[in-house]
Amino acid sequence: MTKIKSLRVHDVRFPTAAAGDGSDAINRGDYSATYVELFTDGGPTGTGFTFTNGRGNEITCAAVEALAHHVVGRTPAEVRPRDLTADVQLRWLGPEKGVIHMAAGAILNAVWDLRAKLAGKPMWQFLAEMPTADLVACVDFRHIDDALTPGDAAAILDKGRVGLEDRLAQLRREGFPSYTTSVGWLGYPDDKVRALTRAAYAQGWRAMKMKVGGPIDDDVRRARIIRDEIGPDALLMMDANQVWGVDEAIANMARLAEMNPYWIEEPTHPDDVLGHARVQRAVAPIRVATGEVAANRVIFKQLLQAGAIRVMQIDACRVAGIPEVLAELLLAAKFGVPVCPHAGGVGLCELVQHLAIFDFLRVGTSLDGRMVEYVDHLHEHFEDPVRTRDGRYLVPEQPGYSSALKPASIAEFRFPDGPAWS
Amino acid sequence: MTKIKSLRVHDVRFPTAAAGDGSDAINRGDYSATYVELFTDGGPTGTGFTFTNGRGNEITCAAVEALAHHVVGRTPAEVRPRDLTADVQLRWLGPEKGVIHMAAGAILNAVWDLRAKLAGKPMWQFLAEMPTADLVACVDFRHIDDALTPGDAAAILDKGRVGLEDRLAQLRREGFPSYTTSVGWLGYPDDKVRALTRAAYAQGWRAMKMKVGGPIDDDVRRARIIRDEIGPDALLMMDANQVWGVDEAIANMARLAEMNPYWIEEPTHPDDVLGHARVQRAVAPIRVATGEVAANRVIFKQLLQAGAIRVMQIDACRVAGIPEVLAELLLAAKFGVPVCPHAGGVGLCELVQHLAIFDFLRVGTSLDGRMVEYVDHLHEHFEDPVRTRDGRYLVPEQPGYSSALKPASIAEFRFPDGPAWS
Known about the structure:
Oligomer: homodimer
Helix content of chain A: 40-55%
Shape of chain A: globular
Number of helices of chain A: 15
Largest interface: A-B, 60 and 62 residues
Largest sheet of chain A: 9 strands, mixed
Structural class of chain A: alpha/beta
Distance between the termini of chain A: 42 Å
CATH architecture of the domain at 164-406 in chain A: Alpha-Beta Barrel
CATH class of the domain at 164-406 in chain A: Alpha Beta
Number of strands of chain A: 12
């Protein structure tokens, strides 16, 4: 029985703000990781993280320290996620949202990485081969059982066993569909957008996402450039990063509809379930997509109940790790909404490929409307980086969650004492 | 022009957990304050805080440090709340929720305390006498303007001028209605509940709140004790502190309805707008009340749009200070829902009395269904503590937000180095 002997957290920051990479209507920062290592006696080291945007990464690190006693001294299987998410003192700082929840996610991601490594399997396989009862036991059904019961979850997961081997063979042949966000950050001038779009199309991408939420005339002009480059058949997604009000989102999408967007992502405030529902009704058949900053499974439950989204974008780091993501995948399957994970940042591509593959193998069981975001940043810092071919993710094969940073990268980019910052 | 020269934050914790005070279905902690002082050159010191539940208070303190640069070097009037709530790097940690938002609240409460002190007025008066245009300019309408426009806000505030002097005279004669929560914490045995209820009734209280959310048979038994003591006419409120699922809340309230509760508070997860709406439809005419952990004005907007609450419980410390509370009071007035502020903890009674009085004078303009929570804890640590008479708050008259802790209390209870903790 391998016990978690100690926890160490690193404040790792990459200086991305200066380049305009990752700039959108509302965020601009230095992509950072609150990076957790769980040490064992002689066993593997579990690694996990939550992604942040630079300043404030020290706050999530402090929150990790405050939660560490819930895992140190236990075996991975003994860790109870609710100890972290419903701590009688710390939950006041959420509950189940923001800093404290992201810190729980960093820790629980590391715990599940350790479990997968101990099993000698990549995360997608570790989850896909887990007995239904064990998967159901991972899920905290409190506050979602009006939409998803343990019985519902078991039925979905049992059904997911049928044809699993065929789906895996298909993935190994073809890879997992993805789209690229690297062409249209708000910080890029028009000619750079055109050049990047042309290059991405040449590389095989047939789905691309642009940022909107600047002055609407600029958004329209940039959207025309991209649509002009990719032709009528490739998919163009738009992402407003929450900047619009509800009425404003509806009005702006009426103008952008000319470029036939596949989805509008984060049209308004992420907490506004009713607002998203209004936008979805107004902009259909354009899909509303959201989720990268949805605080927890209770928000996703409502987005689904209200018919507010037609694409659900889970995040690997904002919620309480694998167990809560599992709840979210099951909710999406129950409501028949496709999951297209949010990626980019630091290491999000590395993590969500496992979630998307598991979803296809055992939960959603379809590739229809499924795509994983792909952003070509910072992969070189990971021990087991994503691999893509012709705009598709290849199946990762190393044990664990692909979450380990290279020691040299940690040393170089540790804040504030790493050479990159001093 | 008084400039904010520097900011200091104190981690102050009171060891309340051991006594069972403040114990409910989901929280038990050491009542704490992330306490902010804003120093000026020769002018008064602004004080503000956010309330936490013990462990983790160091995290909100770290978040205050990360936001401090948005106020230091500015005059109070130059502080722009959105600089704190939409910081391009820090907002990723929310947005507008949890640790980072509570820290913004602590700072902005201190900024507004400083403004009121510079004007030489208690906060309620400073706000009540402010020109409509200035009040409207304080509000961030982004993401709520589908429910409340600047024009709506101005109309409410202009109308609130009519009869203001009469309402103030009434308050000075009679005080502001309140209710007590000190009789029925979950940590108390039955005989203590009975004795406290009897004592409170003898002191003049005609509205009392008990905690529910334990085993339902225990909740029913304790409710019978209290109803038995207070007779059929006094108000009995119940507070489940978020512990129930939606269906569970409906089922349990069917049993507790026998004791004729006035409201059920926090019946389920605070993010669950649709869940609260279902509960409200099922338990009517019992009122659903919530808000002490509603993350921001966008959650309140939806609770009102969905008809999910009939009592709105604002909190002075969870959201981004006076400006966001102002938005919430205006939303409640627009939808015609009475505001009954959450209090207790550390210093929440001291703060919310100002908000309730301002609401009566200038926004809601009625006492119908309005009550401020009262908990008799920790007032002795404040320079300008609340004063009550016959279950009513008396109008505070000192300049500022009544938010200043006594220096001796800060020194005694500072964590971890104060004598109370070492």
